[in-house]
Fold this sequence. Notes:
The structure holds two protein chains of two kinds.
Chain A: E1 4-7, E2 10-13, E3 18-25, E4 31-37, E5 44-50, E6 53-57, E7 64-70, E8 73-79, E9 87-94, E10 105-107, E11 111-115
Parallel strand pairs in A: 2-11
Antiparallel strand pairs in A: 1-3, 3-8, 4-5, 4-9, 5-6, 7-8, 9-10, 9-11
Chain B: E1 9-13, E2 18-23, E3 31-38, E4 45-50, E5 55-56, E6 61-64, E7 70-75, E8 84-92, E9 106-111
Parallel strand pairs in B: 1-9
Antiparallel strand pairs in B: 2-7, 3-4, 3-8, 5-6, 6-7, 8-9
Amino acid sequence: ETGVTQTPRHLVMGMTNKKSLKCEQHLGHNAMYWYKQSAKKPLELMFVYSLEERVENNSVPSRFSPECPNSSHLFLHLHTLQPEDSALYLCASSQDWEGTPGNTIYFGEGSWLTVV
Amino acid sequence: DAKTTQPPSMDCAEGRAANLPCNHSTISGNEYVYWYRQIHSQGPQYIIHGLKNNETNEMASLIITEDRKSSTLILPHATLRDTAVYYCIVRRMNTGFQKLVFGTGTRLLVSP
């Protein structure tokens, strides 16, 4: 139990569906992240929210739409995905203050997404 | 952030020490070395980090060479549950949020 909870753990969706992944952190952190892990590829950073503001978007296609309504919750809205988007989507959080690079990042268990 | 090089895989007998090397020859003075691991089908788990001194916690020890161009993660008594992919990451001082860039890591297999 890392304090970062992701739901659902498994999701199968069609290419025309709209679904959302949810992440909640119980650690009081001020930064949240979405990572993607495809089969046999390194983790890829998708989005970063710091103090509820999106501060990083790593050229992610618009069919992935993040939302951070407050510092404890992060969503990833999915629509018209492709089969190659099937992957493990990981949420993470950290407590970051200026000048404190030693803080660590805590990951959730991930949501396995299959697009059919 | 500096790039790291790790062997793709290693084996270790249960109960023995596992020594996982990492090269980061282009590391600069304000970059930290972090180690994470990922057990199959789970999210990565933080293990340890350091700047230039050796570090130890309840999970592992981190030995950083004096020139900081390489480091070794030591699991003193490996168990079967330590089978995982281990990632060595170098990260510079940053403000506001962490940006960890994961490589392919070392797949450690602990056998009975």
